[in-house]
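Long-time lurker. I teach an intro course on protein structure, and each term I like to show students one example going from raw sequence to a predicted 3D structure in token notation. This year I'd like something fresh instead of my usual example. Would anyone be willing to generate the tokens for the chain below so I can use it in lecture? Attribution to the forum is fine with me.
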Amino acid sequence: MAKPDNAYGQYCPMVRAVEVLGERWTLLILRDMLVGVNRFNDLARGLPGLSRTLLTKRLRQLERTGIVTRSEGQYLLTDAGRDLEPLVFGIGEWGARWMFDEPRPDELDAELLVWWMHSRINTPVLPSDRTVIHIRFSDDPRLFWLLVESRKASVCLVDPGFEVDVTVRTDVPTLYEVWLGRRPLLSAVRGGDVALEGNRDLVRLMPEVLQLSPMAELVSTTRGVPPS
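-- Reply from a regular --
Happy to contribute to a lecture. Here you go:
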């Protein structure tokens, strides 16, 4: 194995792991890949602070170490990569238990939140081939639409031109709280901090349609958040 740039000069399995996983952004790339993100553009969009140049470099490092393989335009985890799931989410659980206090303003990115949300829409429960969910934030002038067609969800930053089925009205911090399991959606609705408007049947389905972050269960469990 070639000597990495950040070699520690110690023959120890933990050191070998840190040499691979300790680079900036690497664990977040793996976090996203472990929940099913496998195309370069999708990885880049979900990690907006990471330059495409550095993303390319990190993916190549992961390829060289046998954690990722590239096939037909996709980056796929190998057995070694998939074996990292308990480690990566174990770090998330530790963070939820000990480090996850109130958000800093620079951490609340409305566009990134909507992008994350689109990948977790429970499309099989939607009753029609096309569903439009409009998200309107009281503290961000941008408008967002989640468009689901033929079981595939996408984010639109301009009106897609179809009738809106459900409108979600809230503010950015509240939707982050819901998304990350710090507050149940129905609790936020009952408290008046989230409004769901539109087709009654779809509004009732929203807690099932808008599935939460893969980290939400860890957050809600460690913080003792009651179910909706």
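Some talking points for your students: The chain has eleven helices and seven strands. The longest strand covers residues 130-137.
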